[in-house]
Amino acid sequence: MRFTCVDSFSGAGGLSLGFSDAGLDILMSFDIEKKCIETLQSNPKYVKHPAICDDIKNMFDGRLLDIIGLKQGELFLLAGGPPCQGFSVQRIGEDSDNRNELVLLYGKLIDEIRPMFFVMENVSGIQGKRGKLILNQLIDMIESIGYSVHKKLVDASDFGVPQRRKRMILVGERSDIGSSYKFPEPTSEKNTVRETIAFLPPPPEDGTSHPDYPMHRRDRLSPKNLQRIQAVQQGQGRDYLPANLLADCHKIDSAVIGHRNVYGRMAWDDVAPTITARFDSFTRGLFGHPDQPRSISLLEGALLQTFPPDFIFKGTKIEIARQIGNAVPPKLAKAIGESIIDYYKKTR
Q1: Res. 256: pLDDT tops 80
Q2: What is the mean pLDDT of residues 318-326?
Q3: CA angle, 210 as apex, 205 and 212 as ends, to 5°?
Q4: Cα–Cα distance for residue pair 321/285, rounded to 1 Å
Q5: What is the mean pLDDT of residues 80-91?
Q6: Run of H or E including 155
Q7: Nearest CA to 110 among 51, 47, 65, 53?
Q8: Per-residue CA distances from 70 to 18, 29, 76 (Å)
Q9: Higher confidence at residue 137 or residue 129?
Q10: Which of 80, 9, 18, 74 is nearest to 47 (CA)?
């Protein structure tokens, strides 16, 4: 039995890496973002399948099946994480967001491919006001064509990821396979920031990359931001800043406006906060190094997401940070992939 898989909305390949480690045979990845595909294509050590830059809208009418050489119903697993910014609880603006419709297109692709299983990952906010309607539409659609859908809010830190990261995971199984899949139980493996990044030497003071670690460099901080990061200790954010260092927008108590964890540092002996698409700036969260006066580097963010230390990312600093922050941690993906394979073997 080949546990074949297609990774849609693949991004930088976090799902693919984890599923491959779990024993799945990745047939292809696709994503509309060119830099994500360049990243995948730059890592032949880890990515041994074709990676295609394309829109999900171009994968219908038999095209995806033609590319992977399978018939409807033969694919073991279709995976994907449709862009989630429209559902984010941190997003400001109108509830309507065109990116939300990609969730329903993913459902349409499931309908056409009819895989034995599917996995969808999204932010926890998909259960909220912005996303609940579309999530329910997707589940109704999938159940109507003969799938049992299981959903769970999963924290990646329960599976050895050194990061507090809650995400909604949907696992669907076709009716001829079964209806009693169970999500993996949390493991006893707990990893901290110290265990993950403390081995790295400080990056050069001049802002260049460390000679032994290409993605390990420091950002230049403004004099005011340097004062701010020097004023907080591990695990502290802007609530601990003296009044003269508070930004004007933060002079209202965080109990009123929130955002208490901006301008902060990670704690060595705890997991990291959620690595977001802007983790490269301590002004956006507890993204300051635990004891050095700098934001964490791109490499440190990738390690906290459980990417291999030699994984290559392509693009500008902002593009790479976004790829890392938007990825599914490979270690979490591995746990989910293993649970699906184990369940399938038991049902047989």
Answers
A1: no
A2: 97
A3: 155
A4: 14
A5: 63
A6: strand 147-155
A7: 65
A8: 23, 15, 10
A9: 137
A10: 18
As a whole number of angstroms, the distance between CA 8 and CA 206 comes to: 39
Distance from C-alpha of 89 to C-alpha of 128, rounded to nearest angstrom: 8
Task: Collapse the DSSP code of 338 into the 3-class scheme (helix H, G, I; strand E, B; otherwise coil) and give the result.
Answer: helix
- Alpha-carbon distance of 162 to 330, in angstroms, equals 12
CB 245 within 8 A of CB 227: yes
Residue where the block lists tokens 């073991």: 76
Residues 6+ apart with CB under 8 A from 66: none
Rounded to whole angstroms, how far apart are CA atoms 194 and 200?
Answer: 10
Query: How far is the C-alpha of 84 from the C-alpha of 120, rounded, in Å?
Result: 11
Q: How far apart are CA 343 and CA 335, in angstroms?
A: 12
Please name the residue that has the structure tokens 């419709």.
101
Contacts 24+ apart (CB under 8 A), 237-240: 237/261, 237/262, 237/263, 237/264, 237/285, 237/286, 238/262, 238/263, 238/264
% of the chain residues with pLDDT over 70: 91
Q: Cα 52 to the chain's mean position, in Å?
A: 19
